[in-house]
Amino acid sequence: MIDRTDVVVRWFHCCVALVVMVILSMLPQGSFNRLIAEQLDPVNSDQSVLKPTVVHRKPKPLADGAITSDWTNFFGPTHNGVTRESPLLKTFPEEGPGLVWEMPTGSGYAVPAVYDGRVFYLQRMGNQEVVCALNAVTGKPLWEFGYPTDYSDNFGYSNGPRCPPVIDPPYLYTYGAQGKLHCLQLETGNRVWSRDLMKDYRLKQNYFGVGDTPLVDGDKVIVNLGAPQGPSVLALDKRTGKTIWGSGKSWSPGYSSPIPALIHGKRRVLVFSGGESAPADGGLMSIDLENGAMDFRFPWRSRSSVSVNAASPVVAGNRIFVSASYRTGGAMLEVKPDFSFELLWKSPDLGTHWTTAIHKDGYLYGFHGRHEPEATLVCLELETGKVMWREQILLEESVEIGGSKQDIPFVSGRASLLVVDGNVLCLGEWGHLVWLDLSPVGVQILSRTWLTKSRYTWGMPVLSQGLLYINQNERSPVTGTEPRLLCYDLRGS
């Protein structure tokens, strides 16, 4: 089903594509080589399918007293789009931050995880999903592990994995587009256990495959499963893969990753479900991590059966914010000491599509809008839901066409936000990296650069040890570069 908005968006993308094709005709082109993978043994293999890493420079030394952290989870070190990394490069030079290394990749939207000087990355290469470990500073491959896949996206998007690796030493967990969950040894890449959850629970292929990153908490791996006959949420033993508990029924998985929360001093997991279903259903679940007991369910989902819930819940003390696109908007709940809840407010003004809003100093910031051209950055007061301001982040670029430079307008689109080093780092859909000053008064662009010059930059900016990792998902129509994993030097002094 295609609505009028879809037609407009496709027209917009066709116009952009026409412009960039003209650009490409004026630029020297390198040959495009598909990455063809050989069959790998599912545990160990001497057959590498990785393309060689290109090293450009050494990063600057870390500043004295620098604050650094690993990046082991989907939404940053603390599951909320906030990291303590400092100091960082705040003013980008004209050529952008220094490119440390790049590695040609296959397909997929998964961003890396980083731990103890190593980068862990999941991608599709040929007929395999491949996870690899790399040296964080040089990009040198350390090990790789692959397994077969024949996933095909129903809408023509990437056939690669969506979920980044999750690290809980001594283990590494990956969740592929077909629901294959693997636990690997962090040091060697050897398989500890695996589960084919699509087969085990007779899951049907959701709109865009599996896209909800598991959560590791305590001794459990939590999965937003959405089995047709239940459970909605699954807990596995992180050491063996055996099922510990299942919770909830009937709500489909969606693309929102489970988030841990400490509410009234008690551990909970928050799961925002709702994917392909007719009639449309889904919403927020609060679940006791210990035994899978359901505290409550809060239905919140577009009435359109072709919609999904994709943004993760935002936790602020004992309050939880959920948001969805497709004319849905956001809702703020307050959890009571008995784990019932009260709906504090609803707002149609902040309906995030898949990027999760951030909480900063009593205000929520997120990108409202279903499609790239309409995406608008919105600030809501946490207490009341009052709209403080809304603004589209416009990013005009000068591009050489036919020997002359022309100004082409871009928007940030449904960008990712990261609270870091006193400001907010914003990564747009076309690969723009922007430092923002966000406050209830308004938004100010402090510095900006254009990194990938490519569409579908949909993953979080991953930051660890002052190094920034970006996944270029598509071939750049401006430069001709193929999909790559990029490492930039953001170390400040």
Number of helices: 2
- CATH class category: Mainly Beta
**What is the annotated CATH architecture?**
7 Propeller
Could you report the average pLDDT, rounded to the nearest whole number? 89
User: In total, how many beta strands?
Assistant: 35
- For the record, the count of structural domains works out to 1
**CATH-defined superfamily:** YVTN repeat-like/Quinoprotein amine dehydrogenase
According to CATH, the fold-level topology is Methylamine Dehydrogenase, Chain H
**What class would the helix/strand composition place it in?**
mainly beta
Main sheet attributes: strand count, strand direction, barrel closure: 5 strands, antiparallel
Strand order of the largest sheet: 1-2-35-34-33
What would the principal axes of the Cα set say about the shape?
globular
Which range best describes the helical content: under 10%, 10-25%, 25-40%, 40-55%, 55-70% or over 70%? Answer: under 10%
Uncertain spans:
1-14, 16-45
- First and last CA, distance: 52 Å
Compact description:
The chain is mainly β and about 500 residues long. It has 2 helices and 35 strands.
Descriptive report:
With 493 residues, this protein is mainly beta. It has a single domain (4-489), classed as 7 Propeller (Methylamine Dehydrogenase, Chain H). It has helices at residues 4-26, 197-200; strands spanning 54-55, 98-104, 113-115, 118-125, 128-135, 141-148, 166-168, 171-175, 180-185, 191-196, 215-217, 220-224, 233-237, 243-247, 259-263, 266-273, 283-288, 294-299, 314-316, 319-324, 329-335, 341-347, 358-360, 363-368, 376-381, 387-391, 394-401, 404-411, 416-420, 423-427, 432-439, 442-450, 462-464, 467-472, 484-489. The strands form 9 sheets. A 5-stranded antiparallel sheet has the order 1-2-35-34-33, with no helix packed on it. Mean pLDDT is 89; it is low at 1-14 and 16-45.
